[in-house]
Amino acid sequence: MTVISRGTAGKWFRRYPARSGAPRLRLVCLPHAGGTSTLYHRWAGLLPDAVEVLATQYPGRQERFGEPCASSMTELADAIADALEPELDAPVAFFGHSLGSAVAYEVARRLDDRHGVVPERVVVSGRGAPHTERPGGTLHLLDDELLVAAARRLGDVGSAVYDDPDLRPLLLPSLRGDFRLIESYRPLDVTPLRAPVTAVGGTADPGCTLPELLSWSALTTASYEHRLFPGDHFYLVPQEEALVRFLAERL
């Protein structure tokens, strides 16, 4: 069952309630560039009964199509941290894929800085740590064909939608906006988290190598571990059940 709450949290999250009633943990899931909350719609059914999933919906897509995409990481992370404030009556953990990894790091920092809330775990997927961000990314400046081709080089999961002439104009603005956001992201203060960090990725991901995943070990004062799954940048789709089982053992 999916519940979209009222208020700010309802705008930002699709809620998949814990099957046991009141949650003992909320897992906040953050998608990749151009991605949507539906990436995580099966996870609640695969996680322990007491885990509630909050699948984040960035502006500029699906039911938030009429809203402009976030223009900066600061804007996006501030808004998500604000929306999470009413959800802090239960412990939280984060899973972020690609762009979502950087967002997870930034939101986790804000929860600790503002409220002293340390997530149970921060799981980062398919992207190196913020202090390894490459300067001067220009994918967001490419024309439509080249932008889609660049996205497809990472993996072909779900990319057929860009071939639909009716859907393409609706989908490309969020893809381009998200690339612009992550390519302009240059954190000035990269402080280690107090939460344990788990880094996961695909064995054949052209966008995130093992050394890039290992870079997250510098951004925690608690424990760190990593795990690779078979697949490319979007390994988490064909490996969904194995990945969620792995996460369940750590939540």
From TrEMBL:
InterPro entries: AB_hydrolase_fold (IPR029058), TEII (IPR012223), TesA-like (IPR020802), Thioesterase (IPR001031). The keyword Hydrolase applies. SMART domains: PKS_TE. Residues 28-247 form the Thioesterase TesA-like domain. Keywords: Hydrolase. The keyword NADP does not apply. One of its GO terms (molecular function) is hydrolase activity. Belongs to the thioesterase family. This is Alpha/beta fold hydrolase. It comes from Streptomyces thinghirensis.
